[in-house]
Structure formats: structure tokens, C-alpha cells
Amino acid sequence: MNSIGNHHKPRLVFFQWDHQPNANAAGYLLLHMQQQVKCLSTHFDVVVVNRDCDYAEMCERYEPDLTLFESGYRSHGSRRIRITNTSAHSAIPKLGLHNADPWCDRRSGFLSDMEQWGIETYFSIATLAPEYMAEVKDNLFVWPNFIDSEVYQDYHQQKVIPVTLTGQVNGLYPWRQKIFPIIRDRYPCLVSPQHTYESKLASQLLSGEAYARALNASLVVPTCGTMAGEVVRKHFEIPAANSCLVTERTAALQAAGFADMENCVFTDHHDVVERLEYLFAHPAEISRISAAGYSLVHSRHTLKHRPQIYQWFTLNKGLRSDEKIIQPEPFGDLVTVERISQQGSIRVAAGATDRALLKQGDLLLEQGKVEDAKDCYARCLDYVSYLPEAKLRLALCALHEGKADRAYELLMNLVKVTMIDYGAADPDPVEWAYFLLALVCKGRLAQARRLQDFYPALSHDELRRTHLVLALAGRQGNRLVSERSGTGRKSIHQLPRQSDPEWLACFANILDRCQQPDIANLLRHDLLDQGGSDERLAPRHVKLDIGWRQRLYSGVDDLIVAVGLNRLRPNVPPLPEFQYFWHLAKGLVPRSRRDPLRRIRTALLSRRPS
């Protein structure tokens, strides 16, 4: 940990992941994190804590005026730090930083972290984050990408490179996929290899000043903001190095001040050749546009132009109970307005391709056109192969088709990403709800009922309905429902709204397709009761027995709780699919050879799944 700044500024303790491992791979990722600290130090005396720690101890040691927690990063070598005792020093305001792409599959982990740490206000580096986390958009502000003007500047390099092609060219970047081959086949280009972040070869890529000088020696440099139309660092780095930015027209870029043929060139695959032919035939135009782009970025988008976190800190200190803080535009200042005001933070209407496909698929699924809906959801994965919203909906399609095993696999993997890959305290509540429902559709009702309270802090309307199904299937009526009302935990998933009767009727049909007619009849029986009909279905007995293997897993989990060893209890469901015994064994690290748990650990390690 280290401190940057001086005691005249308010002190900020920044709980940042340990990004140092990236130094041996994609070193520019480490540079980005260092630049974020440099940006914060413009207004704060910054103390960086990037190791496992006790929050109360850090607050007592450094006496911060504000604390900031990085979360939700999709690690490519960076290590997520463990922070305990975050409920201490409640008078110190806390902020969360979603330092990731808006479509990242660690968003559920981010929301879990925020809940665990008692944080209710967040910042994101992505202008589109409010669109991808709609349930928290009123408390989510944007701290946009920026450049360090000490690195990205005019080095007065001779313009010897007609075009530089840099950055990934995969499904996430459809504009680049179309544009780059056209340019590469027509003009001399400096082409940067596409190494993944975690590859050791990534250390060979240009970064920092060397990268800025290469841009500065280029006449034009094309880039885009992904299928979502995000503003990425390259949008600022290219003009900041006095090169002509060639890019896709998006609402977010226009909000940042970019205008076609004034300070950048907006184009697509239909007219890119025509526009470049014009530019190369008129070098003065390239110089004029480059100079204007340079002026825009250095006057509005350097690390000195990102005071949003400091603004929140100062506004929050004097905030009255009848006021709220909003951000009128994603690259602008935060201000206060009356709480009763209809004015809110203005979001970028980006029209992200994946969001449009999800909406189209939802309409098709509602109409019963499952195959067409599946096609829309699958096309989302062509852009982002790990997109959780698309995978959840594909699981719903599988349930509608009676393919419970396929749905279970998709939902299990979603839960694994949050609980195992990321290490959150609990899963997304909607994903967990449908994981339990998939168990029911597989005929594993007893397992679902045993697991329904495994994450007792989780609550959500979809989870409430799941508990209703489990209560009705267990012949318990509506007793559990009243105890679990309200939306509770935030989810990244926004499913089409249905009333309870509509939802139950739909799920009863799903149960029929999944060969679970007895449970389906129980749900329909309850619906008839609620409707006041005299007609009655005679529900048959639903078998609630579980196999010996599940009894073993559940028995071990129950024993851990019964003997008060909750600190050793794995935070994954007691199922073989989640490698429960292996995670249990990891927690049984003996302190000495005489530790009585040593033999248990050795035995359990031998059971680790292959």
C-alpha cells in the first residue's frame, strides 16, 4: 500500500485489487490502474490498499474522509483482495467502483460485493453501465475513461505511418472486423498483433510512451467502441497523440464532443475507402482534424478533467434530506437537485446491439416462438461469448422446450462464474432462483427445497416466486411467500414483467414439458383456489426423497452448521457439480501436525473431482 498526495487534500483510501501480476503480461492494464490512482490524487490524498485487510484497522490507521472499493473486475491476472469488517466506521462515506466493461459477467459479483460491504452509491468507468445494471442506475454515476497528458501528447514525430491498426478484432468489435481488412488490403499499415491480456506475449505490445509515439507518427488510426458503442480509451489516446481518429458514429462519442470531419472522421464499411481517399489526397484536412481532436481531448478528457468522485464527496457532505445528486451528462459535473424533482441523470441512448437482441428475443419468447428467441439470444453470444443475460434466457428457452438438463447446465455455470470464478458471497438472485427451478424441472424437488435457504440474505421477486413453487409442491400453501416479499437484492437481469398467476401458469406448462406433471398439477390446483373456482384438481403425491449421494453432501453441510464451524463452510451449494468437498478441503488447512482436522482434509482432498 502507498500514499499519493498531501495532507491538505481530503484523504481517500482506495481498496484496489492487486494488479501487479499484469506487469509480466499485459503491462498496459497495470498502467491503466496506476493512472486511475494518479487521477484520484488530483483531488485527494490517496492511500492505496491492495492486500487482504481489515477495514476497521485501515480506517483507524489512515483516518480517511472517503473510501473507494474497486470491484467487478474481470481478472486477467489481477487478484481480488479480501476486505473484512466493512460495517465498522459507518460515518465514513463509502463508494464502489465498477472497473470493468458494462457487459462483464462479474457484474453479479459486483452487486454482491456492494451488498456485503454496505455500499449504496457506485461509479463506473463505462458510460453504458447504467444500461447494463438498470436496477441500480439511480445510484450509479460515470467516472469516464481519460488520458494522461504527460504520456499522450504531440511528440512531433514525423508522420511516416499512413495507418496504424491496433486493438482486438473479434466478435465484440464488429466495426473493426469489417473496417480493418478493407484498410489493411489497401494502404500500408502498422498492425499490432492481437495477444490476449493474460498471454506473456502481451508484454511485447506497445504501451505507454512507446505506444503514444507510434500513434503520433501515424496519419490516421481507426478504432471503435465495441458492439455497444462504448467510449474506450483508444478514442481519447489517438487524438491526444495528434493523430486523426477514424471511428464509428455513436451517441456516446457525440456526448464526448466528437463531430464528423471537425475533430474526427465518422465512417463505416460502406464509405471508409472513399473517405480515406479524400483525406490522403488532402493532407491539410488530416492535420486540421487531428489538431481539433487534440484540442478536444486535452481540454476535456485528461485525468485533470475527471473530478466526478471528488464532486460527489463535496456535494454529499452538504447534502440536505430534500436533495439528491445527479449527473446531467456522462462526461459532465455532478450537481444537486430537489429530491422531488423529476430531473435525473441523463444516460447515453446507445442502442447497444446485444440489448436490442435481448429485447427482440423476449418478445418472441412471449409469443411462444422459442426457436426464433433462441436465435436472438445466441447472436448475443457472437458479440460477448459470456454474456449472462443471454445465457439465462437460453436456459429459459431450454425449459420451455422441456430440456431441463440443458437449462440446469447453463444456470449452474452462471452461478459458478459468480461464486467460484469471482468468489462472491452469494449469486445473482435471479440466476439462483432459476437454478432451483431447473432442479425442480429435473425432478430433484427435494434438493431444491433443501437448497432454497442456502443463501439466506438473498431476496428478489423471482426468488419469492421460486419459494412459492417449492412451498406449493411441498403442500405448505403460501406460508413462505409472505416472509419473502419485496424485490430485495439487485440483479443484473431484467425479465419481462408477469403477474404471479401468469408466471405460475407459464411455469406449470414448463413442468409439463419437463415431464413433471404432478408438480404442474399442484400449481394449477393453487391457481384454481386463488381464482375461487369450484373445480378442483386432485394432486398426486410428489416424491421428495433424495439419493444417497445428495444425502452425504447435505449431511456434511448440516453437520458443519450444527457443530458451529460455519467459518469452514464452503460458500458453494453442497452438490458435486460445485466441487463442494474440494472447497471444503481448501478451508481445512491445518495449523500444525496435531490439528485434528488434518486427517479430514487429507481424506476430502482425495475426493476432488477430476
Characterize the structure shown.
The protein is an alpha/beta fold. The chain has four domains: 2-144 and 308-318, 3-Layer(aba) Sandwich (Rossmann fold), CATH 3.40.50; 161-303, Glycogen Phosphorylase B (Rossmann fold, 3-Layer(aba) Sandwich); 384-531, Serine Threonine Protein Phosphatase 5, Tetratricopeptide repeat (Alpha Horseshoe); 548-605, no CATH class. Helices cover 43% and strands 10% of the residues. The protein is built from 23 helices and 16 strands. The protein has helices spanning 27-40, 55-62, 107-117, 129-132, 174-184, 208-216, 233-240, 251-255, 272-281, 283-300, 308-317, 353-366, 370-383, 388-400, 404-422, 429-441, 445-451, 461-473, 500-513, 517-531, 548-562, 580-587, 598-605, and strands at residues 2-4, 11-15, 45-49, 53-54, 66-71, 83-84, 94-98, 122-124, 140-142, 161-165, 189-191, 218-222, 244-247, 265-266, 323-326, 335-338. The chain has a seven-stranded mixed β-sheet with strand order 1-3-2-5-7-8-9, with helices on both faces. The protein has a five-stranded parallel β-sheet with strand order 11-10-12-13-14, with helices on both faces. Helix 1 (27-40) links the parallel strand 2 (11-15) and strand 3. Helix 14 (388-400) runs antiparallel to helix 15 (404-422). The chain is globular, with a radius of gyration of 27 Å. The model is unreliable at 477-486, 532-541 and 591-610 (pLDDT under 50).
